[in-house]
Design goal:
alpha+beta; two-stranded antiparallel sheet; single chain; 6 helices; about 290 residues
Length: about 290
């Protein structure tokens, strides 16, 4: 009788020990699964989740304040691609791959349209579109014609007649995203650095530089880049990031600073501002009206 009781207790002990080991194995599996999930989400957040505001600041600088809903706040949330390669509109790699520090995750289209000034207008238009301020999306064509997105939405079009664009109501109202993209193609086709230089307001004091400002040399050829972010230190010195497209149409990208180990430029650039693919003069800072 005692022997049977002993065997029963021993069997119970072995079952308990086996169950305990199984529980330990389950815990180890759960820990491994959690580690894999954590690593995955770190990868998503650390690579694919990067935005402009994740670009490290120079020592001693902090980003200027940004009000909610402002252009500054919107630009800082611009997503960056994990792949830093710049591609052309036709899918080919750009020959010069040394100009970019990062690449914005925004479409380039499949036509040779979104070049330098076009990228600047695209970013400004996208910001206003995101805010629902369609009446603010207006650009002048090089011939002086006002290209209004609000009118485009209402069915107006701008055919070329002779040497000038004409405004005609010739289409049904279109409030879709595809309609907005078609409007942008119109702007890219007929506006450029020359029209922007007439439309924007010159900023004489570079110490007043703000995100969303445009550094511009109007002409044929000309060039334009957008100020994407601004930082300041205790002494009031400022540093800023620039983004551009170029010719032919290509991914919009954050520029390297050829004179520094980081992509931030000084607002005290004197008589020339040297970027990887263009040298701007002294009075080249502009702002949207």
């Amino acid at each position: 009788m005692l022997y049977l009781v002993f065997l029963k207790k021993q069997k119970t002990f072995h079952l308990w020990k086996k169950g305990r080991q199984a529980s330990k194995d389950k815990v180890r599996l759960m820990k491994s699964a959690l580690l894999v999930c954590f690593s995955f989400f770190m990868l998503i957040g650390g690579v694919f989740g990067q935005t402009l505001e994740n670009i490290a600041l120079p020592d001693g600088f902090r980003r200027v304040p940004a009000a909610p809903g402002s252009l500054t706040a919107w630009l800082r949330k611009m997503p960056l691609k994990a792949d830093k390669t710049v591609y052309l509109f036709n899918g080919e790699k750009k020959r010069n791959q040394s100009a970019q520090f990062a690449v914005l995750d925004i479409s380039v289209g499949n036509k040779d349209l979104q070049q330098c000034a076009d990228a600047v207008m695209r970013l400004y238009a996208e910001y206003q579109y995101a805010q629902g301020r369609y009446d603010k999306i207006v650009f002048h064509a090089t011939d002086g014609t006002l290209l209004s997105y609000s009118d485009w939405r209402a069915g107006y079009r701008y055919p070329l007649q002779g040497q000038r664009l004409r405004k005609l109501k010739s289409a049904a109202a279109n409030t879709t995203r595809a309609g907005f993209d078609a409007y942008l193609e119109l702007v890219f086709s007929y506006a450029g650095t020359l029209s922007l230089s007439r439309e924007l307001k010159r900023v004489k004091n570079t110490g007043d530089i703000q995100p969303g400002d445009v550094i511009l040399e109007g002409g044929s050829p000309g060039h334009a880049v957008m100020v994407m972010d601004v930082a300041v230190n205790a002494a009031g010195e400022k540093r800023f990031l620039l983004a551009q497209s170029y010719m032919p149409a290509q991914n919009i990208h954050v520029l390297r600073n050829p004179g520094a180990s980081h992509p931030w430029y000084s607002n005290q650039w004197g008589n020339s501002l040297v970027t990887p693919e263009w040298i701007f003069g002294k009075d080249c800072l502009y702002r949207w009206p």
